[in-house]
Each structure stands twice: as C-alpha cells, then as structure tokens.
Amino acid sequence: MPETTEKYDLLVVGAGAAGCTAALKAARSGLKTLLAERAPGPGVHVQPKLDITQDENIKKIIKETGVKTRGRSNKSMWLSRSHSLQLTSRIHDLFILRGKHPDSYESQLSQKALDAGCELSFNTSLGVVQISRDGFESAVLISEDGSRRMVKPEFVIAADGISSHVLSSCFPHLQEKRQTEFVGAGAMLENATTIHGGVTHVFFDSKLLPGGYFYLCRFKKNNAVAAAALPVHKLGAHSVEHYFKQFTQSHPILRQLFKKATLINYFAGGSHAARLDKHYHKNILLTGDAGRLLDPLLGYGVNHAIHSGYWAAAAIAEASAEEEAAGLYERKLASDLLPGMREGARARKALDSMTNNDFDSIIRFLNHVSSKADLEKFLEDPISHPIPLLESLSRHPTTLLLLRHLYKVF
Ligand SMILES: Cc1cc2nc3c(=O)[nH]c(=O)nc-3n(C[C@H](O)[C@H](O)[C@H](O)COP(=O)(O)OP(=O)(O)OC[C@H]3O[C@@H](n4cnc5c(N)ncnc54)[C@H](O)[C@@H]3O)c2cc1C
Question: What is d(CA 157, CA 133) in angstroms, rounded to the nearest whole number?
C-alpha cells in the first residue's frame, strides 16, 4: 500500500471523449483535477476513426472548449436498394477525429486540460477502490511500471468506457436494462475522389445489413470514412467485418471508392446502450459509454459522451454539496438526453422489423412529400402537415418515429 494519500477535488477515470471534456471543464472551473488513463497516451485506446455526430446542441460546448473538428456538413443522401433521397438540413453533421493523431479530439482536449492545470496520468489504471456509505473514499492507481499511488478525491467521474471498472466496482446494485448491443467496422481512406465532399451517405439494406446501416462521407480534402454498424441480435453466424466487406463489394458507389482510394486503416469495435435506474452513486457520476449513454437506434455515443462529461463536471463545479451535484447532473440527463434515448429505443424496434420493400417505399414517400411540401418542416412538425402525416401513418405505424429520429442524426 502507498504510504501517502493525495487529495483531489475530482478524479476523472478514462481520457476518451467524455473524460477529456470533463477534465477540461473541471480544470477551467478551478477544480483540482486528476485525469487517469490506462493507455499510454491520448486516443491510443481507439483505432483512428472519424465519428459523425449532429451539431444541434453540441456546438456551444465545442466552441467553449476551442477544439477543432474535421468540418461539418448539412447535406445527406439516404439510399435504399432502388431509391435515394437528397436532404439539406438545418442540423449539420459534425466530424470528430478520434485516435492517437495529434488533432484527435482526445489529443487536443487533454492538452487543453493540462494547460488549464489538470494533472494527467497516462499508463495508469484504477486498482483497488475503497467505498463507504458515503460513496467513493479512495483508490489505488497503478502505473504500468508497477508503481502505486493512493488518491482521495471529493468526486469521481467515471469515463472509462463500456467495460467501466468504476461501474462494476462501485455500483453493485445498479439496475441495467439493456437496449441495444452494437458492433461496427469501418475504414479510413484517402484520395477518395469518387464521392462528393460533405455529403453523408446512409445506406439501408435489410438483407446485407439486417437491422443496421452503412455510412460514408468525405471530409477534409479527399479523406473519407466508410463504416457498417449492426445490432448484435441481428448478426447471425457472421462477424461485422464480414458484413462491412460484403456491403463494400456489392454497392457500386462503394466498389468504385474502394478501387480508387487508398486505405489508411480499418477500425472495429462494439458498445451497448442501456437504461440505468440512475447515473450516480453519492459522489460518483457515470458518463459516456460507462453510463451506457448511447443512441439505441444507431449506436452513436460521441454526442452523449461530450455532453455528459461536460454536465458532470459543471454540476460538481456548481454544487455546494455532493447530493446536489449528483441531483443536478441526473436532472440534466433526464431533461436533455434520456428522452432522445427512449425515442431511439422505440425507433430501433421499427428499424429491426423493416424489409427492403419498406425502405424503398419510405424513400419514395419522402421524395413524394418533398415534391409537395417542405420535408424538413414536415419531419419537425408533422401535426401541421395532416396529409403526409396520415400517409406516413398508414404505411408502417412507427415509420414517422423512425424518420424523425434519423433526420436529427443524418
Ligand atoms: C466502430 C465504431 C464506430 C463508431 N462510430 C460512431 C460515430 O460515427 N458517431 C458516434 O457518435 N459514435 C460512434 N461510436 C461510439 C463512440 O465511439 C463511443 O460512444 C464514444 O467513444 C464513447 O466515449 P467515452 O469517452 O464514453 O468512452 P471511450 O472513448 O471508450 O473512452 C474510455 C477511456 O477510458 C479508458 N479506460 C478504460 N478502463 C480504464 C481504467 N480501468 N483505468 C483508466 N482508464 C481506463 C480507455 O482506455 C479510454 O481511453 C462508434 C463506436 C464504434 C465501436
């Protein structure tokens, strides 16, 4: 056991999207903060990839942190087997680079957190944790060289991803109701000149990607990202890499892209969305994937990770007592994130049940609406557009719910 105990206002465990955002916000709010990360450097835990997220609510945080993103776009193309729809939306896609690149989200934010006075400790895992009736008491942090230090923080933000050690060691009685488990595989490419820049392509195909989707976009000069995501309950005997390859070989846009472009790297991984009965225990707050805060329809989690990391740190900085911080944080999740997750879970049931005929008919229907009315206004406020509303309800009872959820993301 280490002989001395170091005191902190806040220990953040995990330097991913949630942890770096939390550490920066906390350090800038004057909290004595330690950010402990198991990997040897920022972003090393994840293969280089581009995450797409909607900028609707997040742009304020992005502006405040000063982080540079890889651009944004408000054009998308939705494709079924036989039809396509072009959509220009008021909601932009924001492209966020992940991984160990010096411009990745984690690299930029951890440097900013350091500049703001946060202590960073890489190659550091959370070891034995001491819990009492009052919550988190202390923990031993173990470095790769075997050295140990004992820390005693006032608060802990768990940002250690889907296999969260904080969740498993500090929340033994937490109720977790799994919503959707996802796997994804994709590729980063350069010289992607065969596709238009700034258009997010989203493909739906119930045979080639059951319950899933494929996205493709070109960002910054000629770089591109292409990825497939599927819910695990639809995988069958194959791996997600199999579905990814199969799709890239069967669709003409992708066949051409992969023939001409240069591969930078492949990436793959998984996560799951779940409903927790709460996202805190006394002085410990769960954020990002550690809090299962992902969209149950698409598996998108970056937006949720950035928001929850920011709100957790803001609640700790603002509150005068620990219960107050936890309450502030949980209320923010309940008002701004959890309703969207519930909607995503209902939309997931709709996507699971759709066939290629359904997708074709939906895209035809959306083209039909956009020839008569403003499609975006209809999706935002269907009640004011009774004719397309009735038409959509008569197709598939949950079509509209699914479309409205997709529209906010793509
Ligand atoms: C293939 C794939 C594609 C995806 N695409 C998108 C997308 O396009 N858009 C989108 O919004 N989302 C996407 N996601 C989901 C998104 O990547 C995650 O939701 C997001 O990264 C969660 O961020 P986080 O900070 O909570 O966790 P993570 O990014 O997983 O960070 C957790 C950190 O904690 C560290 N850690 C773990 N255990 C410990 C420990 N015991 N001690 C110290 N440190 C520890 C890890 O090393 C890591 O650095 C995708 C996911 C996958 C797998």
Answer: 18
Beta strands 262-276 and 176-190 are antiparallel
30: alpha, beta or left? (left if phi > 0; alpha if psi -120 to 50): left
Ligand 1 binding residues, C-beta < 6 A: 13-19, 36-39, 45-46, 49, 51-53, 125-126, 159-161, 165, 184, 186, 227, 267-271, 288-290, 294, 299-303, 305
- Cα–Cα distance measured from residue 196 to residue 21, given in angstroms and rounded to the nearest whole number: 32
pLDDT digit string (tens) for 58-75?
A: 999 999 999 999 988 899
Range list of β-strands (E), 175-320: 176-190, 199-203, 213-219, 223-231, 262-276, 280-281, 284-286
Are 367 and 313 in contact by the 8 Å Cβ rule? The answer is no
Question: Which of 38-42, 85-89, 202-206 is the least confident region?
Answer: 85-89
Pocket of ligand 1, candidates 241, 279, 289, 409: which has the most ligand atoms within 8 Å of its Cβ, to mutate?
289
Residue 74 burial (10 A CB sphere; 0-12, 13-18, 19+): middle
Token duo for residue 21: 């955002």
Please state, in angstroms and rounded to a whole number, the distance separating the CA atoms of residues 344 and 118: 35
Q: What's the angle, vertex CA 35, arms to CA 34 and CA 36, rounded to 5?
A: 110
Long-range contact pairs involving 229-233 (C-beta distance under 8 Å, separation at least 24): 229/182, 229/183, 229/184, 229/298, 229/299, 230/182, 230/183, 230/184, 231/180, 231/181, 231/182, 231/299, 231/348, 231/352, 232/181, 232/182, 232/183, 232/270, 233/180, 233/181, 233/352
Instruction: Report the alpha-carbon distance of residue 164 to residue 187 in Å, rounded.
Output: 26
Where b means 16+ CB within 10 Å and e means fewer, 81-113 reads bebebebebebbbbbbbbbbeeebbbbbbbebb
Distance of CA 16 to the CA centre of its chain: 11
pLDDT digits (tens, 9 = 90+) for 22-57: 999 999 999 999 999 999 999 999 899 999 998 888
> Are 102 and 112 in contact, with CB atoms under 8 Å apart?
no
Q: With beta carbons less than 8 A apart as the criterion, state whether 204 and 361 touch.
A: no
Whose structure tokens read 């910054």? 220
C-alpha to C-alpha distance for 91 and 141, rounded to whole angstroms: 42
Cα angle, residue 250 at apex, residues 247 and 253 outer, rounded to 5°: 90
Q: Which residues does 402 contact at the CB level (< 8 Å), separation at least 6?
A: 297, 347, 350, 351
Cα 187 to ligand 1 centre (Å): 17
Find the 238 Cα to ligand 1 centroid distance in Å.
24
